Amino acid sequence: MSTLLQLTQADVAIGGRPVLHGVQLQLARGDRLALIGANGSGKSTLLRTLHGLLPPVRGTFTRDAAARQAMVFQRPFLLRTSVQRNLVLGLWLAGLPWHEAVQRAPAALARVGLQELAGRNARHLSAGQQQRVALARAWCLQPEVLFLDEPTANLDPPSKREVEALMAEFAEGGTTLVFASHNLGQVKRLATRVAYLERGRVLADLPVAEFFDRDRLAEVSPEADLFLRLEH
Ligand SMILES: Nc1ncnc2c1ncn2[C@@H]1O[C@H](COP(=O)(O)OP(=O)(O)OP(=O)(O)O)[C@@H](O)[C@H]1O
Ligand SMILES: [Mg+2]
């Protein structure tokens, strides 16, 4: 297994305020890592750090620069233009030649069930539909590492299943996944490994089966134990 990313004793701050503390995390090819923890525990910040958007203020961050990365954000950023054009622009900004972006867009929209809405203003889409535009973009880019921040938080149950199927498809195609989720069922279905965050610290980083072993988690922290009990 080769290392794709590594954070060593990393502190991350936003606007001068410390948010992540002493994070030690390594990502290997083929990992499916779920980040879980309470609101504000630092999952989104950790994803942005791993994607290279927030350099640590202390410690080190190394990554395989040749590995293509993509990220699906918690709140997708879309321009006030058609769904199709948003997708094409997003792909072009990510480095695809324009004609290739135009070529790939329809199949990607069909893959996420948005082909009927290709001409609609993307800002008029529902939150779940906007999330799918972001997923279509990631699908086109075929990244080696895909970061997803609560990818199904706004979706209805059938759409959740579709997005999970798409994530599994990415993984089966060899994409390494890192996703934040509050849905523990989803974590069990998709993750091979779980990192638990509490107040900006990674308190546990375990294979999925061990993570859901209650006795094991009770050792991590009383809050972690409570977190799992409340979610079940
Ligand atoms: N842009 C920002 N400016 C200042 N502080 C921020 C900013 N973004 C996040 N923070 C702070 O960093 C901490 C971690 O936030 P983060 O969004 O990473 O948590 P999270 O685990 O993703 O939460 P949630 O489950 O609500 O998405 C919080 O205390 C939050 O207030
Ligand atoms: Mg978040």
Keywords:
6-stranded mixed sheet, 9 helices, binds magnesium ion, binds adenosine-5'-triphosphate, 27% strand, nucleotide-binding, membrane, single chain, ABC_transporter_ATP-bind, transport, 232 residues, alpha/beta, Rossmann fold, 2 domains, 3-stranded antiparallel sheet, ATP binding
Concise summary:
By secondary structure, the protein is α/β, with parallel strands linked by helices.
Tell me about this structure.
The protein is of the alpha/beta class and 232 residues long. The chain has two domains: 3-68 and 144-231, P-loop containing nucleotide triphosphate hydrolases (Rossmann fold); 78-142. Helices cover 40% and strands 27% of the residues. It contains nine helices and nine strands. The protein has helices at residues 43-50, 83-93, 98-111, 127-141, 157-172, 184-190, 208-211, 214-220, 222-231; strands at 3-14, 17-28, 32-37, 58-63, 69-72, 145-149, 176-180, 193-198, 201-207. The strands form two sheets. The protein has a six-stranded mixed beta sheet, with helices on both faces. Strands 2-1-4 form a three-stranded antiparallel beta sheet, covered by helices on one side. Strand 6, helix 5 (157-172) and strand 7 (176-180) form a beta-alpha-beta unit. It starts with a strand and ends with a helix. The mean pLDDT is 92. It binds adenosine-5'-triphosphate (ATP) and magnesium ion (MG). Magnesium ion binds next to helix 1.
Strand content: 25-35%
Distance between the termini: 33 Å
| Count of extended strands | 9
How many domains is the backbone divided into?
2
* Quaternary status: single chain
What is the correct CATH architecture of the largest domain? Answer: 3-Layer(aba) Sandwich
- The CATH top-level class label of the largest domain: Alpha Beta
List low-pLDDT spans. none
How would you name the CATH homologous superfamily of the largest domain? P-loop containing nucleotide triphosphate hydrolases
Structural class: alpha/beta
Protein name: ATP-binding cassette domain-containing protein
Organism: Ramlibacter pinisoli
Pfam families: ABC_tran (PF00005)
Family: Belongs to the ABC transporter superfamily.
